[in-house]
Amino acid sequence: MNELRYNPLLGTWVMVATQRQNRPHMDEDRCPFCPSSGNIKNYEILKYDNDFPALMPNPPEIKKIKSKLYKNEKSYGKCEVILYSPDHKANLYELSINHIQKIIELWINRCKELSKNKKNKYIFVFENKGEEVGVTMLHPHGQIYAYPFVPLKLKIELDNAEKFHKKNKKCIICQMNEEEIKSGNRIIYENKSFIAYLPYFTDYPYGIFIVSKKHRPYLSDLDEFEKNDFADVLKVIEGSFDKIFNRSFPFMMCVHQCPVNTDEYKNFKKYYHLHIEFYTPLRAKDKIKYYASSESGAWAAANVALVEDKTNEFISSKLKYLASYDIEKFKEQFIYHFNKIHNKKNETTSIYKAPARINIIGEHIDYNGGYVLPVAIDLGCYTAIKKRKDNKIILSDINKKEIIILKINKKNRFNNKVIWSNYPAGVLNEFYKMGLKLKNGFDVLFFSDIPIGSGLSSSAAFTVSFAYALNSLNGFNLNKKEIALLCKQAENNFVGVKCGIMDQFASSLSERNYAILLNCNNLDYEKIPFELGDYKIVVIDSNKKRQLFESKYNERLKECKIALKLLNKKIKAKDLCSITPIEFEKNKNLIKDKIILKRAKHAIYENERVKKAVLALKNKDLIKLGRLLNQSQLSLKENYEVTGFELDTLYEISIKQKGCIGSRMTGAGFGGCTINLVHKDFIYDFKKNVLYEYKKRVGLYPDFYLCKAEQGVEKI
Length: 716
Ligand SMILES: [Zn+2]
Ligand SMILES: [Zn+2]
Ligand SMILES: [Zn+2]
Known about the structure:
Blueprint: E1 2-7, E2 12-17, E3 46-49, E4 72-73, E5 78-83, H1 97-115, E6 122-129, E7 141-147, H2 152-168, H3 172-183, E8 187-190, E9 194-197, E10 209-212, H4 224-244, E11 251-256, H5 268-271, E12 275-279, E13 282-284, E14 287-288, H6 293-298, H7 307-325, H8 327-341, E15 350-359, E16 371-372, E17 374-387, E18 392-397, E19 404-407, H9 422-433, E20 442-448, H10 458-474, H11 480-495, H12 502-509, E21 514-519, E22 525-529, E23 535-541, H13 549-567, H14 581-587, H15 594-618, H16 622-638, H17 645-656, E24 660-666, E25 673-679, H18 683-698, E26 703-707, E27 714-715
Parallel strand pairs: 18-20
Antiparallel strand pairs: 1-2, 1-4, 3-5, 5-7, 6-7, 6-11, 8-9, 9-10, 10-12, 11-12, 13-14, 15-17, 15-27, 16-21, 17-20, 18-19, 21-22, 23-25, 23-26, 24-25
Bound molecules: zinc ion (3 copies).
């Protein structure tokens, strides 16, 4: 059954299309839009006529209803699918600007073609993304509907635009742009031709608009330069969406342009213009904002968030996306925000990055004289810094509201209200203590894409990036080892965090494609080539925030001391990790307490595993490395008891997956992250399956980070 039925209460049409109920749920293994299915020839971008259209150029005959009130019509129109890429797993923002521009060109061509049919009154380009908005086909695609009427929402917008124009002689969309630029605090991104903002009135927490800066009534009015800019803004905004919650972000993308072939409106090209509206049904990572009674039944929207607050979150997501996809553009945008916050005009500014780290193996033995094997990863903390003429230090952070003002060459006091500011303040104090005096003040903007409280050492990256920036700006000539030590002091003395040296050391001294074998006692270290061939490190954040961490940490410290004292009745060892497994097995009867025995066993064998892991890396024996990771995990669970339900479950799920040859928690435990050695061909399925299983069993939504061995702190 296919027909249009008129809703006399709203004065618009409903498309009745009963065969749509039978749409199959697409099996991912046999996607009809993958060229490999044999269903479709190879393509770059493709227009495909919808198999189950609600509207069609040759609609079936209908039986006209006889009524005073009701009426029906044939389903004239067209429903098309636009396939963005032959790659089933691609996201639009992963495609090149050139490729996206071709998609836009296809949209334009289709709009032109469909407008030729005088029965079509409105051409609607849109994309539904994600299962939350009912998408059954995961292959990247958008759609085009040609309606034989102007849909109601567009009609309302056009009516209001007409009214506004009558009164003000101005296009309502042009006016909206002006007001958003003037207020400035809802703008997410702009290039020469487009501006993206969360409009003042938007009814979704992330309901962003992308608007043409020039008055362009139709998509087809865009010139070559504007098409390129349109591709750019789409790429940046869609990329940012997926960084908001670190998951594929569902949305409805709706292109609003002028109607066609209609005499309902006169002069509409003067008062209405092209813009893209996003409808985003998530309000939290796994919480849907429903279009419920008030919204659906009364059209009275309630936005649960203040757009001005969401703007910062969105900007942060934008920088996260750019930092991972396009570092040059990241720099440009980071400086743009630096200039905006510090009231500068187009000035160049230096940017420094200090990375997060994972520890490959050697857990909980840094305080037992053992070795650790950290690797710096792609996530990091960025510091943009520029000298001032006066003696003020002005600190700002993309993710924070507060601006902190300090003075140079003065000892800072602990700030109870703005905790984050104590990290840079602590660093400044350490420079001051060393007698390294500053000549000028400076402006700073921080940005970090390292999740906090996940054990990836976000705080070490924070202090190291700032200390290194300060050192470079003022020509203090501290080396990277001295920077690491200074930052450890800042955290220990000022912020009041008990931490070892590993984090600062890794963030400062790491080198691309190398792990660092570090002796935590004397800071001797060796660079170990970190080459994984076809394997990749997948970091999974359990999203269980670390708890009880400090008390348990102190407890383990004490237990290890007792173990050492007992073993030293026969052995004279400086620390637990100086004892070999053979010595331990010979003398373990000295320890009667089973728990103390287990703690000692972990420390001594874990240190041995670090040495074996180094050998495995040198021999490129990844299977062996994977096995050592698993052994470490099991020892941390059984002997050291620092894993917990979430990390244990994550391990159990991960290690069962095809292509995963090793997995273990990294960091102090009791929540935080695991690292996983996964073959590159299986990463997509690995992530999908672990996500599904972990969510089901634990109820938390894990985050995934694909990592390679990165450079320590550097100017970028
Ligand atoms: Zn496909
Ligand atoms: Zn306009
Ligand atoms: Zn609109």
